[in-house]
Design goal:
The protein has 118 residues and is of the alpha/beta class. It has 5 helices and 5 strands. A 5-stranded parallel sheet has the order 2-1-3-4-5, sandwiched between helices. Helix 1 links the parallel strand 1 and strand 2. Helix 3 packs parallel to helix 4. The radius of gyration is 13 Å and the shape is globular. The termini are close together.
Length: 118
């Protein structure tokens, strides 16, 4: 099973890979929205984690396309630094299953993965 990470930040990638391993998931990292949409359609994908700082990201469109193209509900977790309030708010309004600040991601990722992955 896979955790799909949409990010270009190597630090987030490293952190996510460690947490994913604890839940017996492999991590597939993509750097743009189009690649994330393509990979999310894979039935082996268990969760999409979105770095809201990804260049060119339209979180509303991403959530809509993923929700419409996946056969089963794919949990979407979004994160950004706490100073990016508008991006965090947009992710909540777009319907992400969880929206975290970067600090929350660092502290709570293992627990949140356990809660979102069924």
């Amino acid at each position: 099973m896979k955790l799909l990470l949409l990010s270009r930040d190597l630090m987030i990638g490293s952190r996510v890979e460690g947490a994913a391993r604890l839940h017996e998931l492999t991590t597939l990292t993509v750097g743009d929205q189009q690649a994330a949409v393509a990979a999310a359609g894979n039935n082996d994908c268990q969760l999409l984690l979105v770095d809201l700082r990804t260049p060119g990201l339209d979180i509303e469109n991403l959530v809509e396309v993923v929700r419409n193209s996946c056969e089963q509900h794919l949990p979407i977790l979004a994160c950004a630094p706490h100073v990016h309030e508008a991006k965090l708010t947009a992710a909540r309004q777009a319907g992400c299953d969880a929206v975290l600040t970067r600090g929350q991601l660092d502290r709570e990722l293992e627990t949140i993965l356990g809660r979102l992955i069924v």
